[in-house]
Amino acid sequence: xxxxxxxxxxxxxxxxxxxxxxxxxxxxxxxxxxxxxxxxxxxxxxxxxxxxxxxxxxxxxxxxxxxxxxxxxxxxxxxxxxxxxxxxxxxxxxxxxxxxxxxxxxxxxxxxxxxxxxxxxxxxxxxxxxxxxxxxxxxxxxxxxxxxxxxxxxxxxxxxxxxxxx
Length: 166
Ligand SMILES: [Zn+2]
Description:
The protein is mostly helical. It has helices at about 5-15, 30-50, 55-65, 115-120, 130-135, and strands at about 85, 100, 110, 150-155, 155.
């Protein structure tokens, strides 16, 4: 692809994100429109990654997380700790970007509660957001003490040398 074609695709993608134009209104061939659509999705994803790491973006995300909009940890002993979106990749073009949620209390990764989050390209959040958010807002963890279930048999703890001991 030529530099002029790349520039045309990028400028149209940016224009769509800024609500200055609509893809349907562009008088271009279908192949170019498809490339602009893909570039728009990728560019939006990268902008979202960056925005949620700014002070304003982090504050907005913190509010969503604290309200439980992203969901809660499914682990019983986390007592409905709200979770942070996470993905191992930052590449929006990777088709296998699964959105996961990270529990800041038990440090576990889980599938999101909501279908809309499961369908989302996880690269919108990437692998760094959860760590940055926890550094900036350590109180996001409701009760930092991690509870561990200790199995008992007829009221007795399992011996520490047993392979069943947690
Ligand atoms: Zn948890």
